[in-house]
Amino acid sequence: MEQEITPKFQKKLENIIVLKSELRKWKEKTEEEINVLLKAFEKTTRDEGDYCLIEQFTDSVFAEELVKITYKYSYNSKIVLSSITAIGMMWWRYDLPETKQIYQLMVAHCQQKGIAPYVAIYLPNMKHFAHFENKWEYYMSMKTMTPTYLGRCKFLEFVEKNINTIPLEYKDEIIMFLEEERDNQFVMENRGDFQKLIDKIKS
Questions:
Q1: Rounded to two decimals, what is the model's pTM?
Q2: Hey, where are the domains in the chain?
């Protein structure tokens, strides 16, 4: 039995359809118009989800248009960030098919100032990442990405997730990072959590 779409989500759905329709005509629009539309569309990918939105957010043809927009305006960090986040959330939350073009877009911006930490949310989890060269060099670069707070947060998440597989040559550097984070904590319990990670790496 088909689920009934609530008025709330019907309105969201209609808004998404309109935004997609306008973004498909991006070649006819000014850079600022594209920026405004992309920002609004990106926001919808992070809103409360519903089954009725799946079809809209798994649209590979539309995703390829976003890829084209990103490359066209690669110098505009606002457009790049909105596009990267929109594509990433469509893939992460709604299972948008991961194409080679989408993966290459993420790789192309994985070290861009102001964008890199947002790419790091998605890139390491993509299936194509299995072929990424020098993975650990990329992982280690996370802690110096900007915005700094987000880069360090993503690096910490990665360390916690891969605590048992850290190569020997990176252990000292990671321990130094964790010691710095530990010493910056005001809550003693948090300091203890960092110390546990340090002890585990040393063991």
A1: 0.90
A2: 8-132, 145-202
